User: Fold these one by one.
Assistant:
Number 1:
Amino acid sequence: MLASMWTVKVVSLGVVALSLSLELLFWLFSHRRSERATNKVLFFPSEVACVEHIFSPTLPHSHVCSLPHGVDTSFSRLLRYILSACSSLDLCLFSFSNMDLSRAVLLLHSRGVTVRVLTDKVYSAINGSQIGVLRKAGICVRCDVSAVHMHHKFAVVDGRMLITGSLNWTLTAVQSNMENIIITEEPDLVQPFLKEFCRLWGLNDSAQYLNSVTD
Amino acid sequence: MLASMWTVKVVSLGVVALSLSLELLFWLFSHRRSERATNKVLFFPSEVACVEHIFSPTLPHSHVCSLPHGVDTSFSRLLRYILSACSSLDLCLFSFSNMDLSRAVLLLHSRGVTVRVLTDKVYSAINGSQIGVLRKAGICVRCDVSAVHMHHKFAVVDGRMLITGSLNWTLTAVQSNMENIIITEEPDLVQPFLKEFCRLWGLNDSAQYLNSVTD
């Protein structure tokens, strides 16, 4: 009787120790994996390479493009992060003239992803800006109506992934300048940007703005 | 004899279970705390307020300054993060004309902190740039010698804290524009920036550059 009581106690403690060990291992593993998966840095200028395979993975493009193929560059990685959007893409951009990035945004829009673009009023009107192209395609665009510059360069993918840095969405920034981009899913970083986007989006609602001007 | 053997086994398993529980709790605690402590976001424009108390905490300044006092702003927080440097400050800045930020860097230099400044050649020569002031004070400054823009706006404090975003170190950026800054101690984000700084620092060593030109 005494021995069987001891056996029950030993087995119980063993189960507790085992479950705690497994829980600890799971935490260690998920902690390390989430750190690796969610915090990335890209530096520019990016190596110039063909990005057609990112837009049409199944087609052979080597015969229509003289650039190197199948090269993994900072720019191709950036495109992939943006194209990973499934439900929403919020863009808050000072300058947007890069045609490949514009193509990616248009592709997401055609897939039914909800795209919102907030940009600087002055820079949206410069030669080569893609803002007019996006607007014509039916994408919801708002220009900052204040007298100062809306100097942000960030994107929030599906409300969970933040892409931000020094890089304006221009060809010069991608191919020439020394620039950086952070890609992160850390909630402490993503959430403030999402909140700020919503604040600025509301602030630059042209209907509300017109009402306040005419009040 | 049998009972004492069982006792040893039970006690051993109990110790294992207890130590694993404590380890798990420690991990949970440190994981949550590090997340909270190391990822911060600041948005600009910053409220304009007196920052004298940050430079000289013990002196009363209300009589010499007409700005609001004791107000915690995005800019005062940025200054505090920079002034927290104990051993090193690596700056990689496109444009640097903000006098309060310059004062903070000079103060760190006077305290013996090793300051390195890498900046854009063109913007270092514009009116109001603080680069000449830093150089005259004996701070090690290197200008990017390439034909393109060194468009980064980041700082690494003590090799462990990264400050990066859209904000150039100018008065307009701080007080007028819509800007962002991330402050993080996540190694996955800090280490690539530190590595990139060292790469660019070596690349823009004027002695090496002159040698390669005269070769």
Number 2:
Amino acid sequence: MTTGDDTAGTEQSRDDDAYALDRKTVAAILYAVDIEDRDKLTELMEPLYAADIADLLEQINPYDRTRLIRLYDREFDGEILSELEEGVREEVIRVLSPDVLAEAVRDLDSDDVVDLLEDLDEPEQKAILGVLEDAERVAAQKALSYPENSAGRLMQREVVMAPEHWTVGQAIDFLRASDDLPEQFYHIILVDPRLKPISYVSLGKLMGTRREVPLKDIAEEDFHVIPIDQDEEDVAYAFNQYHLISAPVVDQDGRLVGVITIDDAMIVLDEEYEEDMLRLAGVSDDSSLSDSVATTSRRRLPWLAVNLISAICASLVISQFEAEIDQLVALAILMPIVASMGGNAGTQSLTVAVRALATRDLTGSNVARVIRRELMVGMLNGLCFAIVLGTVGMMWFASPMLGVVIGSALVVNMIIAGFAGTVVPVVLDRLGVDPALASGTFVTTTTDVMGFFIFLGLASVVLL
Amino acid sequence: MTTGDDTAGTEQSRDDDAYALDRKTVAAILYAVDIEDRDKLTELMEPLYAADIADLLEQINPYDRTRLIRLYDREFDGEILSELEEGVREEVIRVLSPDVLAEAVRDLDSDDVVDLLEDLDEPEQKAILGVLEDAERVAAQKALSYPENSAGRLMQREVVMAPEHWTVGQAIDFLRASDDLPEQFYHIILVDPRLKPISYVSLGKLMGTRREVPLKDIAEEDFHVIPIDQDEEDVAYAFNQYHLISAPVVDQDGRLVGVITIDDAMIVLDEEYEEDMLRLAGVSDDSSLSDSVATTSRRRLPWLAVNLISAICASLVISQFEAEIDQLVALAILMPIVASMGGNAGTQSLTVAVRALATRDLTGSNVARVIRRELMVGMLNGLCFAIVLGTVGMMWFASPMLGVVIGSALVVNMIIAGFAGTVVPVVLDRLGVDPALASGTFVTTTTDVMGFFIFLGLASVVLL
């Protein structure tokens, strides 16, 4: 029997070759593009899924990308467009010949069309809208009228509903007789006479139940309705938290207007994760590997600029102790350790807090307890390392008092780090600022400045 | 028409009150527990979903948690158990009275039972297995025989299949006549006579198609089969990449043995994200907000210890220039800036690379180009800040040469940071080590040590 211990029993490890683009395939494709062999290219691309072709296009350089698309021409599937990341997608749209683009766009579902349109500049939006049929165009424009990042943009308008009083038999007959069921649906939404969703029935359950049973009897217990103006982040959270496969969307009057399915929610969830992770490191969250040098540079600068200011502030603090450092150079040698340990501990607390805020695990109900815990952990770990570092300092510079000073400074800085690392993101979150975006600077500035100040200050008082 | 610009048009922002535990509700629940009012407690808990009750249990302190569970008693739903995070779940299992636990476990689906069991210690595993019916116990033991973190553990054994030559009519009749369809299923898997999956048909499409049409005609184009020993990380990647709702699992002989559904894949995906994010900050990935002070302290220590060693190494480098710092204290004041900027730039590159490796966007096909880009970006941003910092240094200490020295040191360190930040995770990944886990130390040690070395070294040569 395998236990929960990670080292017991056999354990799988990730196979990097599964699903990653095969380097040989990519090389063969680029070669076919080089020698302009359309048949070979089509043959190589044929077994690839749209998502993989999108990855391929993202990973090759812009010059090869253009040539590949021009050679591939009419084989270009609309689905590839919806899989491409924003930057590359804009580029590809400009490269595609107008009729191939038109064909590709007509392939797409309504929610993918909206997703495509919302990132484009106006002239390109007009071009694409012009290509759609009237009904599709109106639907797309309606979707674009909803606020960006809202449920209205994510949803598909095609929804399968049934009156709440129907039986299984009536529902099945209705579905079987229906001409235009959506491509993807997993539930029938039960509605009242005013089109308000009451509950939903999964197709699986429907299939396995006798005709005379009322739909209400097999309706799902848990029922979540998404308001049309809800932020997509909240939508994605709900899908994740409640394990939804699809959820009905209602307008301000509570009437059913569409449905959001799990695949769209997952894309949002994915974006949110990436956003948090990149923002914590100060990287603009619309960054991508295919950005040019200039774009990448521009996207990294702001954070670095803020950190430069922060570093200069720390240096200003150090300069207050110029005379002391001059007297005892050991201070200059040891001071980065206190600041650095504080920074690391602060980053640990910060990351935990930012993640917990995103998953709504850190709330008013436990924030006090978590802050208390972080203070205690800071003290505990601080003491632990204070002993180590104090001993090192003592032995290195043959000065017991120096050891005591650096040990004490470390404990204090690590307590501060634990505190700031939790309080700063919580406060920013309360103020409506994304904690992932701004906390890092506040926390590391605090630990650096305090680290230097406490160590050098204590040293100047005690030793000199 | 709203454009892709984030500032144009109205924009939604996250509503922290949506789906988060209402503080008043939590307070009322704790009060009911305090005065031991079971009816009130049941009334307050009734409208909450299992996932939210799990969150509640995770957020209150252990003492209240025990009292709440004891008071709630038989109302305790098995689903809550599967929603709880590992640490709290073990605690809850110990607190629940044996018959309530037995009842709760019998509520669960087979894959949730396995999920529950695999994290437990052996005596507790035995206790739970003892509670199950024979068929369920055997199924659970079979699942546990697969390697941890493999598809075999994730899958549910109940799968709906049909012979590949059937028509829609035959499939529908089969489903309608079936007694024991699974709780959740979205597709019918088409199999050949040797039980090898050929394709699958979504229930939605089935419902809308005439009886005489062969199933093969409405089968999905894209078809992904999961080998039973595949790592769950690869499974989750496939679900995300190809927007799967469910996927059949096959054994070594290619025979259909189960199916994995999107909700299980999403849990894995969520864990992977959290793992990467926490690991980058040096926090053990099984950490949680409900850990005690001692546990949290223990889980943060290793990374801090490694960083202490790294910081001491940097100090050793500084100490080589003790004489120079003694001569020119400005060096001590300015040196942390070079190291810190290098660390920040390195962390930016590192985070981008780790994320891209996880999403398989950084592969052999583009790694050379990305490294080149990082070097150029390091140089560009380095030059930019070198000018700023050089000017600051020059003016602050009235020394043009000092300005040049610090500017040059900064450029070099930022180029090194960009390089290390990308190369280190890629190399670790190739060696089969999780880049999120180990890269941080290597990269920041490099930028610290090199930062101090280059700046102080250059200064000692040029200025002194």
